[in-house]
């Protein structure tokens, strides 16, 4: 019997159909709602429509420290599109946008890459009661290209023009062509939702999608990494604890300045400059300003701040180690030496999940996250029966947050990989 979730063997690479350029919203670019009264009127307009809401937000990543929304776009059938300014209305954004939140609570939200926008929308009091993520739906459908433009072209035959997604949306006033671009992001989102839903329905994956969307809606986000300074680009070149301490102090100093001024940290001081200063360890203004970047007029004015950070690093009582402390398994590349039996288990599990991924045409990371598989294989203790093995794996996946559809697919595959014990099979 053919698995209803298997990819169509006759389907070739994704087509790139001829597309009609989508240059402007069909109803024109709406006025930006800024004041409390304008936002209330926008909410009343949305309430007059029907069906789900297409929702999007624009941030100022790369320009601002915060991840706040600087523009919210919403479209609904019978209402058209509204553009909301969530920052310049003169009041508390949660209070001012409460009428919008009240209306949005009455229907499904449709977003593309919802995980990017949900946190900044929640910050202004906007939280979905029901969610549909068209990007995640595209992944479950097995599409290689799931950005908004690619999916709109593939499913709707329309071409979204490249625009201002990486612009500084904190800028005011917002240029008309930026608002045109923003309105187009929700212009056909509802049509896209219906199109990709039909694809998932044909693949018998609608229930999988519903479970994923609900998980995404309820997800609070991963815990903040403790040693965020270790993400400094180029830090892999540094092994000396004293130099690592300098990276840490410079990074923390930069972060505090960036947060206070609400400016992206890289615009305060580039990562490359931090690594250079930590390596050279200058102890005078003259030495510091000979380094790249630090010789500029702005950095000269801040020279004492960076020198104080370097001085703290020299006298610290807790210089960091090159390897970040971890409570999880080590990198898989070290398993063969440190715990060879776990390496054998991981190879078998990865092979099984890769085959499953290809069979159901869903990326491996969506079938079950690689981190869950690594933790399972590292800590696994072989059990005497296949039934006990499957039960233990199911419990492990459930505790790790895997959804029911993922467990239904992955548990038999992982049980086959781990029972009989592959390390014993190799030794016979």
From TrEMBL:
Domain HRDC: 240-320
GO molecular function: 3'-5' exonuclease activity; nucleic acid binding; nucleotide binding
Residue stretches of biased makeup (Acidic residues): 9-18
Superkingdom classification of source: Bacteria
Extent of Pro residues compositional bias: 319-332
Residue runs in coiled coils: none
Ranges where the record places region Disordered: 1-29, 313-339
GO biological process: nucleobase-containing compound metabolic process
Protein name (database record): Ribonuclease D
Organism of derivation: Mycolicibacterium rhodesiae (strain NBB3) (Mycobacterium rhodesiae)
């Amino acid at each position: 019997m053919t698995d209803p979730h298997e990819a169509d063997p006759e389907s070739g690479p994704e087509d790139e159909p001829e597309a009609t350029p989508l240059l402007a919203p069909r109803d024109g670019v709406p006025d930006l709602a800024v004041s409390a009264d304008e936002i209330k009127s926008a909410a009343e307009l949305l309430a007059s429509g029907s069906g789900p809401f297409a929702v999007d937000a624009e941030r100022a990543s790369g320009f601002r420290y915060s991840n706040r929304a600087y523009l919210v776009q919403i479209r609904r059938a019978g209402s058209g599109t509204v553009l909301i300014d969530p920052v310049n209305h003169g009041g508390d954004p949660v209070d001012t946008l409460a009428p919008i939140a009240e209306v949005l609570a009455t229907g499904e939200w449709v977003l593309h890459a919802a995980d990017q926008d949900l946190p900044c929308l929640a910050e202004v009091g906007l939280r979905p009661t029901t969610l549909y993520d068209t990007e995640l739906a595209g992944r479950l459908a097995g599409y290689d290209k799931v950005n908004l433009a690619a999916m709109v072209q593939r499913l709707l035959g329309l071409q979204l023009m490249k625009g201002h997604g990486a612009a500084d949306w904190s800028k005011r006033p917002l240029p008309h062509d930026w608002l045109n671009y923003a309105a187009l992001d929700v212009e056909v989102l509802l049509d896209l939702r219906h199109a990709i839903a039909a694809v998932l329905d044909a693949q018998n994956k609608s229930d999988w999608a519903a479970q994923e969307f609900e998980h995404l809606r309820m997800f609070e986000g991963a815990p903040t990494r403790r040693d965020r300074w270790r993400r400094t680009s180029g830090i892999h070149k540094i092994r000396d604890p004293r130099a690592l301490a300098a990276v840490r102090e410079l990074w923390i100093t930069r972060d505090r300045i960036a947060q206070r001024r609400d400016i992206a940290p890289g615009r305060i001081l580039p990562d490359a400059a931090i690594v250079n200063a930590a390596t050279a360890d200058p102890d005078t203004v003259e030495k510091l300003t000979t380094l790249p970047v630090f010789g500029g007029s702005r950095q000269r004015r801040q020279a004492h701040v960076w020198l104080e950070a370097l001085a703290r690093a020299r006298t610290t009582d807790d210089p960091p180690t090159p390897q970040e402390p971890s409570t999880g398994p080590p990198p898989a590349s070290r398993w063969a030496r440190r715990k060879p039996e776990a390496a054998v288990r991981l190879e078998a599990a990865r092979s099984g999940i890769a085959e499953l991924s290809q069979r159901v045409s869903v990326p491996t990371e969506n079938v079950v996250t690689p981190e869950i598989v690594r933790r399972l294989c590292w800590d696994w203790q072989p059990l005497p029966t296949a039934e006990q093995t499957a039960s233990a794996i199911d419990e492990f996946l459930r505790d790790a947050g895997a959804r029911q559809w993922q467990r239904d697919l992955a548990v038999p595959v992982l049980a086959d990989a781990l029972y009989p014990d592959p390390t014993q099979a190799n030794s016979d």
